[in-house]
Specification:
By secondary structure, this protein is of the alpha/beta class. The protein has 15 helices and 14 strands.
């Protein structure tokens, strides 16, 4: 009998925020149980750490140079022929997504038989002046449901911006929170599914992405907890001369110490809230008699810098932004921990492999079951990541188990971190003569990855700074 498959994804959850994997404060009892009964990957990364390109990798199994999204850009249609849900659908599974998709057009099913949608603030669709604007009230299932319980309610009622570090408790009943809604809708799917078919469910949470608005019981749990200090690298901007810390939705800057404490408290509170709701869902799996025949994979689209190096949000190539949780609960896991580098494009082949479904030839990711079975001889040595940004912050990076090399493509700056000794990236060793050869070797790896790219980042021999960057490669824009 084919197993059921549940993919649980969060939005903007750091890879170090799981209790069983060493976080000193955060409480995640249900994720800890998944770790105990499965395999945890402590070097999992989002190669393009923002929502849209990360989700393209998740749903297609492709690298960014193949799915075409190397930065964040709304309004570019998703026309991929082969997707994770489509392969499950074709294999006879009943397929359902609940929560965030962030595809375009907004109601694109991407191969799911049904999508119950909540993409969060719906940036692109909510702005009336954008050329592809749609009525977000018409497309969002959660807001319809919320207004049935709270007439006239809106996502901005707390006064918090959707990419801000400002934090405060949720203002409505806990059961009306979007985290609870995702689980309520997922439980309803278990009730009404066809019992003759296996199912593939993508349970996709919008949190802990801002707004940082956990229910008060969770906020209070962390408001006075001794959360770890933010690491500040010897390379970080400690003075904030441009006063970016005075922008509530800024990606960098030195902010008020109390505001940072509240942001950290709310962020970790959102994670514990999600964890408890996952426990609510797995209890229903037990009650429905399907838990023992269900594969669960937990991950996130990217992380959150949360004050590391006086930075916030995602997009940048540092661990807080690029490293994600990756836990596979499956037979044979037995609490193992794996340090081999994995990434989001590995989700699709892994879940298909777990279900005994042939992996399409176009998929570029790898099934992590090979690592579980000890087949590591042909596993990748590193991950190539990147993200286009404004100013001088467009970055390319190479990351392995033990080190990371970063190249900023606008001005040619380089950074090198020894992750084995400095996982928090506090010491930039790119100018240290002891690591000159390693920097040169990783630079050659990046040159190899970028050879032939339309931006002209390299001539095959050297990296060329100052080239014009794009957010989507030409073939994906049509």
């Amino acid at each position: 009998m084919q197993p059921n498959v549940v993919l649980i994804s969060t939005d903007q959850m750091r890879g170090d925020c799981i209790g069983a994997l060493g976080h000193p404060v955060v409480e995640t009892p249900n994720l800890d149980a998944l770790c105990r009964n499965g395999i945890s990957f402590t070097h999992a990364y989002s190669a393009t750490p923002t929502c849209i390109p990360a989700r393209a990798a998740l749903l297609t199994g492709l690298s960014q140079k193949s799915h075409g999204r190397v930065g964040y850009k709304d309004g570019v249609p998703w026309n991929y022929r082969t997707t994770l849900p489509q392969v499950f659908t074709d294999a006879g599974y009943q397929t359902q997504c609940v929560g965030k998709m962030h595809a375009f057009p907004v109601r694109s099913q991407m191969g799911f038989q049904n999508v119950t949608l909540h993409d969060g603030y719906f940036h692109f669709s909510r702005l009336e002046y954008t050329p592809y604007a749609e009525s977000w009230e018409r497309t969002d299932d959660y807001i319809h449901w919320l207004r049935e319980h709270r007439p006239g309610a809106d996502l901005i009622d707390t006064g918090l911006e959707c990419n801000s570090w400002v934090a405060r408790p949720w203002i409505y009943d806990e059961m009306l929170h979007p985290t609870n809604w995702v689980v309520s809708q997922s439980i309803d799917f278990l009730r009404r599914r066809d019992p003759r078919k296996p199912f593939f469910l993508h349970m996709s949470f919008v949190r802990p992405h801002p707004p940082f608005d956990p229910p008060r019981v969770y906020f209070d749990q962390y408001s006075h907890a001794p959360l770890p200090d933010s690491p500040i690298g010897d390379w970080a901007d400690a003075e904030d001369r441009e006063r970016n810390g005075l922008r509530p939705s800024g990606g960098s800057g030195v902010i008020n110490e109390n505001a940072l404490k509240r942001a950290k408290a709310a962020y970790h509170a959102l994670i514990t809230h999600i964890d408890h709701q996952i426990g609510r869902f797995t209890q229903k799996l037990f009650e429905s008699g399907t838990f023992l025949n269900t594969i669960i994979l937990f991950t996130s689209d990217h992380g959150e810098l949360l004050g590391d190096h006086n930075l916030f949000g995602k997009r940048l190539p540092y661990e807080g932004s690029t490293r994600v949780p990756f836990i596979l609960s499956c037979p044979g896991g037995n609490g193992a921990v794996c340090e081999s580098p994995v990434e989001l494009r590995d989700v699709m082949p892994t879940l298909l492999d777990c279900a005994g479904i042939d992996i399409p030839a176009c998929v570029e990711g790898k099934s992590v079951l090979h690592l579980l079975n000890g087949e590591t001889t042909d596993w990748r040595e590193y991950i190539h990541g990147e993200h286009t940004l404004s100013g001088n912050n467009s970055a390319q990076f190479i990351v392995s188990e033990k080190e990371k090399y970063i190249w900023f493509s606008k001005d040619g700056r380089e950074q090198y971190f020894n992750l084995e000794n400095d996982r928090q990236e506090t010491r930039d060793l790119s100018k240290d003569a002891r690591y000159r050869d390693r920097v040169a070797e990783l630079r050659r790896c990046l040159i190899q990855e970028l050879t032939g790219r339309e931006e002209g980042f390299t001539d095959g021999e050297r990296l060329i700074p100052g080239r014009k960057t794009v957010t989507c490669l030409k073939f994906i824009k049509g």
